[in-house]
Here is the input.
Amino acid sequence: MLVSKRYLIFMKYFIITYGCQMNHSDSEKIATQLELAGHKSVKTASAADLIVINFCSVRQGAVHRALDQTQKLGNKKIIAAGCILPSDQKKLTAKNISIWHPDDYFYQAPLRQNKFSAFVPIMTGCNNFCSYCAVPFTRGREKSRPAAEIVNEIKKLLKNGTKEIILLGQNVNSYQDQKIDFPLLLQTINKLPDNFWLSFLSSHPKDMSDRLIKTLAQSKKIIPYVHLPAQSGDNKILQAMKRNYTVGHYKTLVKKLRLAFKKYRPAWPPLAITTDFIVGFPKETDQQFQNTLKLIQATKFDMIYFARYSPRPGTAAAKIKDSIPANEKRCRAQAINSLLKQQSLAINKKYTNKNIDVLIERISGQFAFGKTSTNKAIQLPKGKLRSGQVIKAKITSASPWCLKGLEKPR
Here is the structure.
């Protein structure tokens, strides 16, 4: 127990989390270790003696926010965890901040913050070494959890009333536990008797096999939603990123996914596909960026998560001059957002007057907020709704980023 050995008195702790869903899942595991060591959680950083900052070196913006946060915490004891590059570790240790390595808690049972929706890590690390990505340097090589351990964890969650299971990994498609690969793991979980939603993050297009596509379409508990990062719509940029697929291959995967879901799950709603893009990769020309816009126009994504390129120390791309001015990166990001806004509105309008399953996530004021089975944000009148319910709702209106609806009478 790192904390119990280092600190002889019980402390009040507060966890600040940056980065992806895996970091949020890790924060739940960190909380378990702190509680087992006798420390107690508090609701605000100001009330805490010990601050754990779950760090993210994958994006420069997250690095700046985390480092700025350490300046605001005064004389409190701070521990940093999460995805931390060696260069950022030096900055932290120079401030007398201790580093807690992820291996210390990868297999730890989490102290869950949400009783009806659960992140379940199935693997960590990455072997792909995309030229822009720091993950192999912060989390190391791929490591898969035993399938039996994953399934047992999910069984316990379902027994305790969990309605949504989200499998996590830097590249879940490459999961492998002896003879059990990702499609077989999904099939095993799908056969569990309880009624629940199943999804996963994140997939690499190079590992999206025909067998996996068929498994997704045939597994009724897997929600009709796939996040498939594209990163660029230009083949030369994809090659420079070391993504190991082409734009044509990506388009083929999207077509196969939509055809498979239409064949095996023809009922409403259709498959929703979201993606990631990086704008302003070194030497990305205007024409190459226009190719990204063409891919977006052709594919019609339900949602796009985009980031402006920032060099990560130690990566292959960091050796190339960051040649795209910040203002140009901002303009390209705005162009994607403008196109996405048009496309998302057109897609979401098709939901109007349709019925869809909704998971209620929180209640605020007179409204209930949740998400549809296609992972779209939705707002409904509160009525008698409560967090954790799965209901049927009729969509009454749509905007680019949110749906509105009414609960259907039972």
Residues 326-349 form the longest helix (24 residues). DSSP finds twelve helices and 20 strands in the chain. The two ends are 50 Å apart (CA to CA). Residues 117-349 form a domain with the pyruvate-formate lyase- activating enzyme fold (CATH 3.80.30.20).
